[in-house]
Amino acid sequence: MPAPIRLRELIRTIRTARTQAEEREMIQKECAAIRSSFREEDNTYRCRNVAKLLYMHMLGYPAHFGQLECLKLIASQKFTDKRIGYLGAMLLLDERQDVHLLMTNCIKNDLNHSTQFVQGLALCTLGCMGSSEMCRDLAGEVEKLLKTSNSYLRKKAALCAVHVIRKVPELMEMFLPATKNLLNEKNHGVLHTSVVLLTEMCERSPDMLAHFRKLVPQLVRILKNLIMSGYSPEHDVSGISDPFLQVRILRLLRILGRNDDDSSEAMNDILAQVATNTETSKNVGNAILYETVLTIMDIKSESGLRVLAINILGRFLLNNDKNIRYVALTSLLKTVQTDHNAVQRHRSTIVDCLKDLDVSIKRRAMELSFALVNGNNIRGMMKELLYFLDSCEPEFKADCASGIFLAAEKYAPSKRWHIDTIMRVLTTAGSYVRDDAVPNLIQLITNSVEMHAYTVQRLYKAILGDYSQQPLVQVAAWCIGEYGDLLVSGQCEEEEPIQVTEDEVLDILESVLISNMSTSVTRGYALTAIMKLSTRFTCTVNRIKKVVSIYGSSIDVELQQRAVEYNALFKKYDHMRSALLERMPVMEKVTTNGPTEIVQTNGETEPAPLETKPPPSGPQPTSQANDLLDLLGGNDITPVIPTAPTSKPASAGGELLDLLGDINLTGAPATAPTPAPVPQISQPSFLLDGLSSQPLFNDIASGIPSITAYSKNGLKIEFTFERSNTNPSVTVITIQASNSTELDMTDFVFQAAVPKTFQLQLLSPSSSIVPAFNTGTITQVIKVLNPQKQQLRMRIKLTYNHKGSAMQDLAEVNNFPPQSWQ
């Protein structure tokens, strides 16, 4: 059989291939020749064939059939064979294949070989791919080589010991005696590997960490010698003595000094020397300074040293290298919470990074800029960030807008500035804002009573002829609907008022309705705004009726439903229209975990947040509360059972009771003492299945004590409880309202809300008049489904007329007896 070609010739031949197919053909031909040679047990050229096989493996072609040949080469007595055999074992074998266990004995023999280079090959292979079984068997030989006087073997044995500890952590103590003496070695290679070994042991064992803390002075001394030593050609890199060893020592000092005062104190001086004496003109020096900064920030260092570290990062921001600037911004972002004032000194440099062309640097600079915003610099920082929002790439706009909203809410110097800032964001990047931007701005505007005229005028001018920013148009439509009368009357005192007629306002809203840019959500806002203007404008009511009736045949089902209901409000419920469409009251801030928390969205599927809808024509629900929740459009709140369920999620409003507060039912007729029949409406399976208004329940378990839920201004509300035997998760609460004053309380309305984990059914009351002198009571039944058996909480709202005045009050009921919900 002819001699196989050499590796060099194979490489040259493969490089001449013009296509991938041609290369594959060459490789397959050579692999076939190598297989034939292996089958013939050709010992002469085995080394050459395995070398060629390793090259083909590096190119990505399968070479597993050479694994056993590698073991044969390892068993050979020739050094050249062993070298290729061990290299092949490291490339082709790993601990997942049982074949590797066959080489354990060969490695053990070679670890005890008389030639240091053979021993080095065995140490490299064990440290690269040794399994836990091999490490247990050979750890003794590795530990023995750690104590040898040969520095070539000691550095390789130290790295091999690192692999053994990673595979079998319980063998760590075996290397402890030998590790102590490694730091006394003057050879830089041994010093470097010993520091790596110490770092691994300290990271894996708290006991080892405590044991090695006494080595801090010795490590400090080694680092000091490296800094102060003169030029050493063997270890010099760009004029710095052994930067790799310096970085390793700094990392080990960081681990040893973390959460330890004495160790941190011992290394403060040397860290200051490294930070001040290291040359920054070359990248090598910057690498050492970066490790120094990380160490200073991680240990219990002095405040002056931390300021020095942050100043180093500030200098990094001026570096021309993008990687160094990125590293500096990332490090400052991690430290800004603990050293805020020191980072603030570099604010102008950080803001300049917003103009960088590199998107990674730009993102880090944006995140750090938001972290630096406080009450003192809010105006200047927002100016820079708004400029950045104007010019940044689309992928930044959402995060930037969100950050501006949060910062403005937290540090706004005035309500006008807050409103102007958010409107600027909506004008610039309205399509990228978070879902809750619209309801949050609406709540802010509602609560800023003195700014209503200014805001509605600004929003009106902002959307003249431009409907591209849908969230802005939604807010503008809502505000025009609420405060259109202020816009027409020209009552703005903050800036020069504009002269607008009722027809011009309606022209804008109708343009929004017919614009191709308007989404279904925005059209819902506009239609509701037009409807609300029917109670604020006097000369254009007929035009509003016409617009509403036109959209009663819209192909958009949601818009059609609203138009039909608004049209019914004009015809059948005109006496309720002014009360239902009155101006929104001031809203309370939603609590994070209160009983009436509601998820806010910008109405992607709910066109009119904070709006009311008239009851649809057809059978009336059984109570005013059911009317109310139907008007709210199926909010994601605890449902009242007789109300027709809808598929729409939570409307973009504030707290539930703020929504309830939008409606004044004083003009509604009193409900008859006998509850009206429940209309036949299909209910989803998760509601109170099988429960109708009459009878309320079947088998009742009594014995639950009653409570006084409310007692104020002569009005007393008592709760009595009953539990259904047919459905233990249902609690039936009967409220009794009594009046101890000398005059009747009229138009009495009781409303209730519970957390989302509950479901509530509010039946109709027995009357709307609470007689004076406790001569009678109003009774009303509430059914609460509590499938998770959680503690019952409820918020109630009471509205009534007394002594010629409209009264309204809120209360929370948290003292429900355990028997009522357990």
UniProtKB/TrEMBL annotation:
**What positions does the domain GAE occupy?**
702-817
How is it placed in the membrane, per its record? Peripheral membrane protein
Q: Give the superkingdom in one word.
A: Eukaryota
Q: Where does this protein have compositionally biased stretches of type Polar residues?
A: 593-604
Using the UniProt annotation, give all residue ranges assigned to the region (Disordered). Answer: 593-629
Example GO CC term: the record gives: AP-1 adaptor complex
Read off the InterPro entries from this record.
Answer: Adaptor_Complx_Large_Subunit, AP1_complex_gsu, ARM-like, ARM-type_fold, Clathrin/coatomer_adapt-like_N, Clathrin_a/b/g-adaptin_app_Ig, Clathrin_app_Ig-like_sf, GAE_dom
Where in or outside the cell is it found? Cytoplasm, Perinuclear region; Cytoplasmic vesicle, Clathrin-coated vesicle membrane; Golgi apparatus; Membrane, Clathrin-coated pit
Please classify the protein's predominant subcellular localization into one broad category. cytoplasm
SMART domains listed in its UniProt record: Alpha_adaptinC2 (SM00809)
PROSITE patterns the record matches: GAE
Return one Gene Ontology term, BP aspect.
intracellular protein transport
Keyword check for Protein transport, yes or no: yes
Keywords recorded for this protein, A-Z: Coated pit, Cytoplasm, Cytoplasmic vesicle, Golgi apparatus, Membrane, Protein transport, Transport
Similarity annotation: Belongs to the adaptor complexes large subunit family.
**Function text:** Subunit of clathrin-associated adaptor protein complex 1 that plays a role in protein sorting in the late-Golgi/trans-Golgi network (TGN) and/or endosomes. The AP complexes mediate both the recruitment of clathrin to membranes and the recognition of sorting signals within the cytosolic tails of transmembrane cargo molecules.
- Protein name, please? AP-1 complex subunit gamma
Organism from which the protein derives? Propithecus coquereli
